[in-house]
Amino acid sequence: MQKLGTHILVELSGCPGCILNDTTAIDKAMTDAAIASEATILSKHFHMFQPQGVSGVVVIAESHLTIHTWPEYGYAAIDIFTCGDRCSPYDAAELMSQGLDSSRMEIREYVRGF
Q1: This prediction's pTM
Q2: Which residues are identified as catalytic?
Q3: pLDDT bracket for residue 3 (50, 70, 90)
Protein backbone atom coordinates (compact mmCIF):
# COMPACT_ATOMS: atom_id res chain seq x y z
CA MET A 1 0.00 0.00 0.00
CA GLN A 2 1.24 3.47 -0.84
CA LYS A 3 0.71 5.80 2.13
CA LEU A 4 -0.91 9.05 1.04
CA GLY A 5 -1.65 10.50 4.44
CA THR A 6 -2.46 10.00 8.09
CA HIS A 7 -6.02 10.33 9.32
CA ILE A 8 -6.65 10.43 13.05
CA LEU A 9 -9.93 10.44 14.94
CA VAL A 10 -9.61 12.20 18.26
CA GLU A 11 -12.03 12.03 21.16
CA LEU A 12 -11.70 14.66 23.88
CA SER A 13 -13.57 14.49 27.15
CA GLY A 14 -13.59 16.47 30.36
CA CYS A 15 -13.67 19.76 28.47
CA PRO A 16 -15.42 22.75 30.05
CA GLY A 17 -18.80 23.22 28.38
CA CYS A 18 -18.29 26.97 28.13
CA ILE A 19 -15.23 26.42 25.90
CA LEU A 20 -16.98 23.82 23.74
CA ASN A 21 -19.82 26.26 23.14
CA ASP A 22 -17.56 29.18 22.18
CA THR A 23 -16.84 29.48 18.45
CA THR A 24 -14.06 32.01 19.08
CA ALA A 25 -12.24 29.66 21.49
CA ILE A 26 -12.65 26.70 19.13
CA ASP A 27 -11.47 28.75 16.14
CA LYS A 28 -8.37 29.81 18.11
CA ALA A 29 -7.59 26.26 19.29
CA MET A 30 -7.91 24.85 15.77
CA THR A 31 -6.00 27.69 14.11
CA ASP A 32 -3.19 27.49 16.66
CA ALA A 33 -3.05 23.71 16.18
CA ALA A 34 -2.87 23.98 12.39
CA ILE A 35 -0.13 26.63 12.52
CA ALA A 36 1.94 24.78 15.14
CA SER A 37 1.74 21.54 13.14
CA GLU A 38 3.09 23.47 10.12
CA ALA A 39 -0.08 23.14 8.07
CA THR A 40 -1.11 25.75 5.51
CA ILE A 41 -4.56 27.16 6.31
CA LEU A 42 -6.76 27.77 3.25
CA SER A 43 -10.17 28.51 4.83
CA LYS A 44 -12.23 28.14 8.01
CA HIS A 45 -15.92 27.82 8.78
CA PHE A 46 -17.74 27.39 12.11
CA HIS A 47 -21.41 26.90 12.90
CA MET A 48 -23.07 27.43 16.29
CA PHE A 49 -26.04 25.15 16.99
CA GLN A 50 -29.01 26.08 19.17
CA PRO A 51 -29.25 25.60 22.05
CA GLN A 52 -25.59 24.54 22.11
CA GLY A 53 -22.74 22.88 20.25
CA VAL A 54 -20.32 23.88 17.52
CA SER A 55 -19.19 22.26 14.28
CA GLY A 56 -16.21 23.58 12.44
CA VAL A 57 -13.68 22.92 9.73
CA VAL A 58 -10.24 24.28 9.01
CA VAL A 59 -9.32 23.41 5.44
CA ILE A 60 -5.57 23.07 5.05
CA ALA A 61 -3.47 22.51 1.93
CA GLU A 62 -2.57 19.14 3.45
CA SER A 63 -6.28 18.20 3.96
CA HIS A 64 -8.44 19.19 6.99
CA LEU A 65 -9.20 19.53 10.69
CA THR A 66 -12.85 19.19 11.78
CA ILE A 67 -14.69 19.28 15.10
CA HIS A 68 -18.15 18.73 16.53
CA THR A 69 -18.82 19.51 20.19
CA TRP A 70 -21.33 18.42 22.81
CA PRO A 71 -20.87 21.01 25.60
CA GLU A 72 -23.47 19.30 27.79
CA TYR A 73 -21.20 16.23 27.95
CA GLY A 74 -17.83 18.00 27.91
CA TYR A 75 -17.05 16.03 24.73
CA ALA A 76 -15.57 16.89 21.34
CA ALA A 77 -15.11 14.66 18.28
CA ILE A 78 -12.18 15.74 16.10
CA ASP A 79 -11.00 14.52 12.72
CA ILE A 80 -7.52 15.44 11.48
CA PHE A 81 -6.25 14.33 8.08
CA THR A 82 -2.82 15.33 6.78
CA CYS A 83 -1.14 14.31 3.56
CA GLY A 84 2.61 14.12 3.18
CA ASP A 85 5.19 14.15 5.93
CA ARG A 86 5.54 17.87 6.61
CA CYS A 87 2.86 18.41 9.21
CA SER A 88 1.98 16.24 12.20
CA PRO A 89 -1.65 15.43 12.97
CA TYR A 90 -0.52 14.32 16.44
CA ASP A 91 0.95 17.74 17.21
CA ALA A 92 -2.32 19.32 16.08
CA ALA A 93 -4.34 16.94 18.28
CA GLU A 94 -2.22 17.68 21.35
CA LEU A 95 -2.58 21.43 20.87
CA MET A 96 -6.33 21.16 20.34
CA SER A 97 -6.60 19.09 23.51
CA GLN A 98 -4.73 21.78 25.43
CA GLY A 99 -6.69 24.62 23.82
CA LEU A 100 -10.01 22.99 24.74
CA ASP A 101 -8.77 22.16 28.26
CA SER A 102 -9.47 18.44 27.86
CA SER A 103 -8.77 16.04 30.72
CA ARG A 104 -8.70 12.97 28.44
CA MET A 105 -7.74 12.33 24.84
CA GLU A 106 -8.09 9.13 22.82
CA ILE A 107 -6.73 8.76 19.27
CA ARG A 108 -7.32 6.21 16.53
CA GLU A 109 -5.09 6.31 13.46
CA TYR A 110 -5.88 5.29 9.91
CA VAL A 111 -3.26 5.25 7.18
CA ARG A 112 -4.84 6.54 3.98
CA GLY A 113 -3.74 5.28 0.58
CA PHE A 114 -4.01 2.42 -1.84
Answers
A1: 0.93
A2: 63, 68, 83
A3: confident
